[in-house]
Amino acid sequence: MFFKLPLLATAILATLAAAAPNAPPPPPGTNSLCCALPGTTNLCCSTVGTNSDPVISEFAAGLGVSLTNVLGNIGIGCTVLTVVGNTCSNTAVNCDSNQLGFGLINVGCVPITL
Q1: Contact (CB, 8 A) for 65 and 98
Q2: How many angstroms from the chain centroid is the CA of residue 75?
Q3: Per-10-residue mean pLDDT for the chain, 114 residues long?
Q4: Helix then strand then coil, % of the chain, to nearest 5
Q5: Nearest to 75 by CA among 40, 39, 46, 112
Q6: pLDDT of residue 37
């Protein structure tokens, strides 16, 4: 009877150790395609840059959108990536679900690895 208790405790500890994750989750902005962060979308964008990038600023100006106060990366010409079947020949990013200019400009974008 006394030998069963240590064996039971050892079995429980071994089970908990096996169930524990091997690594902590990635920090925000470094997620992979499998796991879009809440409130974000994985996209494939033809152009990614900042508000000082001439291509992006001219595109936004053509839509009547000011990017002056937008910080971080901005994506234009984006399509949604799904977990299965999509590839991206341009720049894969994870963006905040904030869109400007009729949804043609995506803000808060962070590059991801497919």
Answers
A1: no
A2: 13
A3: 44 37 42 60 93 94 93 92 75 89 91 83
A4: 20, 30, 50
A5: 46
A6: 67
